[in-house]
Amino acid sequence: MSKLPGVTPFPPADGARYRSAGYWEDVPLGRFYAEVLASHGPRLALVSGDQRLTYAQLLERVDRLALHLLERGVRPLDRFVLQLPNVPEFVYVYFALQRLGAIPIMALSSHRWTEINAFVELSGARGYVVCDRQGDFDFQPLIAQLREAHPGLDLVLVAGEARDGAISLSELLSIEPALPRSQLDSVQVDPDEPCVLQLSGGTTGVPKLIPRTNNDYVYNTRAAVAVNDVRPDDCLLVALPIGHNFPLACPGVSGFFLKGARVVLVESARADDVFPLIERERVTHVELVPALLVRYVNAPSIGRWDLTSVRVVNTGGQKLQPEVKRRAEAQIPSCRVQEVFGMAEGLLMFVRLDDPDEVRFETAGRPVCPDDEILLVDETGTPVPDGEIGELLVRGPYTLRGYYGVPEYNARTFTADGFYISGDLMRRHPSGNYVVEGRKKDLINRGGEKISAEEIENLILSHPAVLDVACVPMADPVLGERMCAFVIPRPGQTVTLADLTAFLTEKGLARFKLPERLELTDEFPLSKFGKVAKNVLSSRVAATIRGS
After folding, report:
1. What is the pLDDT of residues 95-106, one digit of tens each?
2. Taking Cα atoms as reference points, which of 385, 53, 367, 376 lies closest to residue 223?
3. Beta strand residue intervals within 103-148, DSSP E
């Protein structure tokens, strides 16, 4: 039983089996990576702008920050909302919290009051780590609002200017801690407890929190590294938001550190910012969502830069069309595109780099672990015949057994014997790999970011001019999907897209979740069960776009 209420532990019998198979090592993630960083001492670890840090320098900063947090009373299982962009401070804070057994919650830089408040409230977080500002958004008023709403939020760490009781990260990193480094080794962390709370792409409201344990997350990264051809002299470019499961640990930053390789952080994912970095740093691996890869292979500047160092392009978060893979390999002949089907909840499927081309281009891979248990089932929960489409159910040594703090939701989302009901529709390919065929859950997948239609609908329903709303995906050649809001206005009222987006922004909604098209209607088509027929609405907006 977890010491943290709201966490569903792995059954003891399954834990014993995973230990026996060697998947779980019973080493806390913080201690595991302290040993990893120490073992690679003089090698170059992290590049960000003009900063270039060795593993020894990185470890020194991680330990220094961890000691300062220990002095301030941070203990195992304390929760921290971590909302930093792709900057070195993210790496310092993440591994410092791991050293203490504290649990970071992986907020995105684009999240605002709606999401951050919900994360703090659900988790009981005592800490918040954030920039003073990013782009044109000043986080200081949000910090003040959160502290007023949550008196238990007693530690706010700020990258940049810290005001009103917040603590400057740069100051902590410049001051020698009072505690000796040996104090870190005395911190007792249970490897069966959560080491991180990742975010779901869930369909009900604000994203759910996904507890990933020390044991399962170390294995997660080891398994991803094993199929990703990571070598000690390789270099990973991190252009996706670093807190996502993919660039953090699949294999991501964690996997490249494991091998003593280099990681290059970049805050802008624009082709004209990324291509020069690839040439300068001789990047070998790039992790992308399909929308970014589409942009890159079609960028006018792609021929102006030397990209011949790139050996592996991983894509995940969304199905990648075969023709995009072929075009990418034609534009960058040195690389192989390796599709990943992964979820923050756990399961990872990778196309293998030595799969035949027709398998690499047509499938989303196969599980990385022999004990990933995969079921594809029909509407009744019965396994479908091989080759037919079914809903993915999964259980394994690094897949969660329950979301954090939502027992009623868990009862609907997990089978009695612990299989996670994913909502993804797949079929098994003759090669043994799997092909993604869609999803059952009510999500809009905008460039790999999963947006809950229900969350946005609930906010739009609070608009005084809106009687009813249904949010549906509309196809987009670059992002895969964008969101269209079908709205029934109240009698005598009307609403425009500009009105709606301003209203939602005022509510504190992240920008990437805003509807990008508005369709006014008098009524919604209904299914035979009396539910809104969103497939009909999606077809309707597609036809409108084609005819315009």
Report:
1. 999 999 999 999
2. 367
3. 103-106, 127-131, 133-134, 137-138
Six token digits for residue 59: 């470890």
Residues of the chain with CATH 3.40.50.12780: 222-439
pLDDT-derived band at 205, boundaries 50, 70, 90: low
Reported as a pLDDT band with limits 50, 70 and 90, residue 527 is: low
| ω into 251 cis (within 30 of 0) | yes
**Do 204 and 452 meet the contact criterion of CB atoms below 8 Å apart?**
yes
Residue 491, φ and ψ in degrees, nearest 5: -55, 130
pLDDT of residue 452: 79
Strands (DSSP E) found in 386-501: 390-395, 420-428, 434-439, 443-446, 449-452, 466-476, 480-489
Please report, rounded to a whole number, the percentage of residues in the chain having pLDDT higher than 70: 98
The structure tokens listed for 190 are: 């249970």
Secondary structure class of 536 (helix, strand, coil): helix
Mean per-residue pLDDT of the chain: 94
**Nearest by Cα to 104 from 66, 64, 58:** 66
Hey, what amino acid is at 107?
A: A
Distance CA 417, CA 412 (A): 13
Q: Under 8 Å CB-to-CB from 391, ≥6 apart: which residues?
A: 376, 377, 378, 421, 422, 423, 424, 425, 426, 440
Delimit the CATH 3.30.300.30 region(s) of the chain. 443-547
Q: Choose among 217, 192, 211, 205: nearest CA to 409.
A: 205
Q: Nearest-CA neighbor of 487 among 453, 455, 449, 460?
A: 460
Structural domain 28-190, CATH architecture: 3-Layer(aba) Sandwich (3.40)
Would you state the CATH architecture of domain 443-547? 2-Layer Sandwich (3.30)
Domain with CATH 3.40.50.980 in the chain: 28-190
The pTM of this model reads 0.86
| Residue 455 contacts residue 463 (beta carbons within 8 Å) | no
Reading the block at residue 81, the tokens are: 């909302």
Identify which of 192, 201, 294, 214 has the alpha carbon closest to the alpha carbon of residue 244: 201
HSE-CB at 35 with a 13 A cutoff on CA atoms is 7
pLDDT above 80: residue 259: yes
Q: What value does the CA radius of gyration of the chain take, rounded to a whole number of Å?
A: 23
Taking 60 as the threshold, does the pLDDT of residue 266 lie above it?
A: yes
Q: Which fold has domain 222-439?
A: Rossmann fold (3.40.50)
Q: What is the mean pLDDT of residues 441-464?
A: 85
